[in-house]
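Case study 2.
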Amino acid sequence: MDKIEPGRLGIWRPWSMLDGDLAKDLEDLGYGAIWIGGSPRGDLKIAERLLAATDRLVVATGIVNMWATPAGEVAASYHRLHDAYGDRFLLGVGIGHPEATQEYRSPYETIVRYLDDLDAADVPVERRALAALGPKVLRLAAERTAGAHPYFTTPEHTRAARETLGAGPLLVPEQKVVFDTDTGRARALARESAGYYLRLRNYVNNFKRLGFTDEDVAGSGSDALLDALIAQGGAAALAARVKGHLDAGADQVAVQVLGEDDPRPALRAIAEALA
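Prediction:
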């Protein structure tokens, strides 16, 4: 089975903020994929609506949470979508984080069992991706899926992830952006967005692997941490960050526009700047 080729540019957006009109407009702007965030439900009705509204766009989940959705349920949804839309759907799955569920235990073993269940349900390795930050899960993504979908990272992480994955597997990091040239206002929005993740140990551990200190991850985060994680500014600055991931080995970057009900202006500006 051929590797999915989603193009260089994608978006990441919570499922509750996606609809067919936005999907079609993004396809027309040249974006190759939508990564559905916010732990979409296992019936994947939102993916079906986005696929129905578009002709070429790849629709991926970023991610279906393994704790919330049994593998059998999402496998049935995968087959329904594949039967209707062929290879335009990519099933992204992941473990989430410990603080989100009281049932969180043995994360690595849980991931392995879930992938085993997807195997048993005939979900092809080439049509699924795995949320991955650390080296161990990145290696698992390379071995058991089409590739990795790291969330809330930097181009430096992308470079290390590519080295861990090797040349073949898909690598699609998510990148948060604030389309605002007012530095104070942009950084305030970035700090508001980052606060949640600074309370989650898997993200904090990843920041420390990237060289950030206890002081950087304390409280609402240092300016250096925020600026490294969340691109802020005009089109050129945002496009430069996206290009940084691509130059570091990403196949595609899934751009998440913060603070905008309508992400089209920011996404149009990024696409034009990269063109």
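The chain has a mean pLDDT of 95.
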